[in-house]
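Hi F.,

I've been meaning to write this up properly since the lab meeting, where we talked about keeping a consistent format for the predictions we share between groups. The idea is simple: the sequence comes first, exactly as it goes in, then the structure tokens exactly as they come out, then a line or two of notes. No screenshots and no reformatting. I'm using this chain as the first example so we have something concrete to point to.
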Amino acid sequence: MLEDTLQRLRTGLAGTPYEGKVFLVGGYVRDKLLGRPLPNDIDLVLEGDALQLAQLLYERGIANHHPVTYPRFGTAMVHIGETLVELVTARAESYHDASRKPKQVHPTTLYEDALRRDFTVNTLLENLHTGEIVDPLGVGLADLQARRLRTPRDPHATFYEDPLRMLRAVRFSVQLDFTIDPSVYQAILEQAERLAIVSMERIRDEFTRLMDLPRAADGLQMLLETRLLHQFGQPLLPMVGCTQNEYHLYDVWEHSLKAVGFVNPEGLEMPAWELRLAALLHDVGKPDTRTVDEQGGVHFYEHERVGAHIAADWLRSLRYPNAVVEQVSKLVKLHMRPGFYTPEWTDSAVRRLIRDAGDLLEPLLRLVEADIKAQRHDVVHADLNALRAHILRVQAAQPKEKWQSPLTGKQIIERFGLKPSPLVGQIKAYLEEQVIEGKLAPDDIESAWKLAEAFLNERQ
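Output, unedited:
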């Protein structure tokens, strides 16, 4: 698909003034040279007007639609097939102190354009038509071969202009298995607080990309050590140094990172980054609930409930969608339940777990598996394979769709002359609980009325 897009570009621009003057730049060139999977989008740069080039692509039927243009920045975006293509006029920029958005942009050479980019390994160019690799700064290829992250200019200047690049340095280091140059690392340490000028949405997006990586735990530790985490992840900091009980080898922070590393998202509909977020946050309530008894035993009573609130508040502060906030906080709240499983659990207890977890049942079990792997191995833990088998038996005996009140809210209102109120919901919840307990068949209307009447009489 990507190669088809490139071929359409080459063919469409052959014989025009743009032939041999347009270059691929950024992640595509870097990843191609590294032998990595190629991205789904590409960036093109030229010493000329990118907006005119984008218009030409549209007029020649190469682009799917009229270009989306940003004249101030000399950029345009089009789709060619299913590939997003960003076209950029080679440019130089200057910035306001309080913003990462350029205050002034003007066309320039490919060399000057390379100087404004984030890292030298992202400055490499590939001529669209000839395939020639161009290293404008003369250091990009060497840094790529050395697997080294350096900035094109003094890193203090690069990060001062756009502090989000500090988060990108951490992500690229983990994603590409590159070493951050000492001068770059020192600049991050000295300028971490400047991340405050970046919008929370931008920070969230970059953080999400990091959490989507298998080695996300390494990136989290780097965020802590560089103090970047201090700028947007304050609720996580109390986990550092918070010692635990005899089930653990690590403090809460180290244990949580281990759990993040043990997460297995394979085959789940939930994105890997979302499950890793739950692993990161599953014990975030422990520092606030830590107590020590007279015998020196350490306890974290109701840390899952407290942690669910902390997780939800923090994720909202990062502007995550409500669905993500609800799912992650729910996993945090429920993460202790499967860990208490024993063969003595009744079918009704398993039904409650299935009901309460809902569509998050398998992600919850994966989270608990990661949690257990991050604890000491010489203590007894719940047999989650046995729990899975028990879940299958219960589901086979009666589908969960039938675990509900035989009576609707409307029926209850009409029968007892009630007004819509929380009491109606309480009656329905009580009847559902009787079904789950196995004390009421889901189609036993007569018994349901008797139970509902008794419940109502007790509350009047």
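Notes:
The radius of gyration is 28 Å.
The chain is about 50% helix and 10% strand.

If this format works for you, I'll send the rest the same way.

G.
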